């Protein structure tokens, strides 16, 4: 389906709430007094508390999230610029529980600070992470900034060109200068962290389920490219993948951008025509907008 993510300027501006420091204290809740996680060699590393007078820049990342990986140069630049300013840098991978995989990913993308594993989502739930990538600036026992690293992505499928607001950098600079942060929270676009609670309380209204209705469509029309080792930028081989990308599935299928098909002519006039029928598009739309239910796994095709 999405083997080529188009690059265009999004008409929708990311939400930003200009609040004084520390605006997130009430919405975010109190941070735990102590938090430790293991790194890629099994060494226990302290995340919280942050040393008095210092700050922590924390990135939640995922090895297979294309948006997270696209920010790797930003991770390095921020580290090089601020590492001597009483600021500690850490990354947490809450998606992958294989230490060797996470270590390879860190090396491949030249992440210059420790990457910790969070297989039980202890840090995700304690700090309030929702997607990868997502950045946090923590000091004085509080989350001072939460959100995007920069406004490079206007949505999960719209990468901006040229100069863009560097929200995290501005937040760090304000903290160093002892000034109120210009922005305390921004919308971070990325890949949903499975189990992070982003669907908590969601009302299920769709009569269609992933197992019985959506998976057969994805298998027939999408997984030729959207699977490990193929050309699409991310896999869509299981329920969590599909749920994570549900909004984009609807957007691109409704516009007819995906599955890609250049030939002009009526539906089914060509052999191997991969276009979706109106019925298939409607199933995907109703499922995505109706709570993305899994359904009875026993009814899923092989």
Helix count, DSSP H or I runs of 4 or more residues: 10
Structural class: alpha+beta
Weakly predicted, low-confidence segments: 1-28
Instruction: Characterize the largest beta sheet: strand count, sense, and whether it forms a barrel.
Output: 7 strands, mixed
What order do the helices and strands follow?
EHEEEHHEHEHEEEEEHEEHHHH
User: What is the straight-line distance between the termini?
Assistant: 20 Å
Averaging pLDDT over every residue, what do you get? 85
Please compute the radius of gyration using only Cα atoms: 21 Å
Which geometry do the CA atoms define?
A: elongated
**Total number of strands:** 13
What's the gist of this structure?
The protein is 29% helix and 17% strand. It is of the alpha+beta class.
Keywords, separated by commas or semicolons:
302 residues; alpha+beta; two-stranded antiparallel sheet; 10 helices; elongated; disordered N terminus
Report on this structure:
Mean pLDDT is 85; it is low at 1-28. The chain has 302 residues and is α+β, with helices and mostly antiparallel strands. The protein contains ten helices and 13 strands. The chain has a seven-stranded mixed beta sheet. A two-stranded antiparallel ribbon has the order 1-12. The chain has a two-stranded antiparallel sheet with strand order 7-13. The protein is elongated, with a radius of gyration of 21 Å. 29% of the residues lie in helices and 17% in strands.
């Amino acid at each position: 389906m999405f083997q080529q993510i188009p690059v265009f300027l999004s008409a929708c501006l990311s939400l930003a709430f200009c609040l004084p420091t520390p605006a997130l204290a009430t919405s975010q809740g109190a941070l735990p007094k102590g938090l430790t996680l293991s790194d890629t060699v099994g060494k226990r590393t302290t995340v919280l508390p942050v040393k008095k007078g210092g700050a922590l820049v924390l990135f939640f990342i995922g090895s297979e999230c294309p948006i997270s990986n696209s920010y790797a140069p930003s991770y390095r630049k921020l580290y090089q610029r601020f590492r001597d300013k009483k600021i500690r840098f850490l990354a947490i991978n809450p998606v992958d529980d294989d230490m060797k995989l996470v270590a390879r990913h860190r090396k491949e993308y030249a992440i210059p600070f420790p990457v910790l594993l969070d297989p039980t989502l202890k840090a995700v739930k304690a700090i309030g992470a929702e997607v990868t990538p997502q950045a946090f600036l923590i000091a004085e026992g509080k989350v001072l900034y939460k959100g995007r690293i920069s406004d490079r992505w206007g949505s999960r499928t719209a990468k901006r060109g040229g100069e863009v607001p560097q929200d995290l950098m501005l937040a760090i600079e304000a903290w160093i200068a002892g000034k109120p942060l210009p922005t305390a929270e921004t919308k971070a676009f990325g890949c949903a962290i499975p189990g992070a609670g982003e669907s908590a309380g969601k009302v299920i209204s769709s009569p269609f389920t992933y197992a019985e209705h959506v998976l057969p469509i994805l298998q027939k029309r999408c997984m030729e490219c959207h699977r490990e080792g193929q050309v699409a930028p991310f896999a869509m081989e299981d329920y969590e993948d599909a749920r994570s990308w549900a909004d984009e599935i609807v957007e691109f299928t409704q516009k007819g951008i995906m599955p890609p098909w250049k030939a002009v002519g009526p539906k089914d006039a060509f052999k191997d025509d991969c276009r979706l029928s109106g019925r298939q598009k409607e199933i995907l739309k109703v499922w995505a907008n109706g709570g993305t239910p899994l359904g009875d796994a026993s009814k899923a095709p092989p």
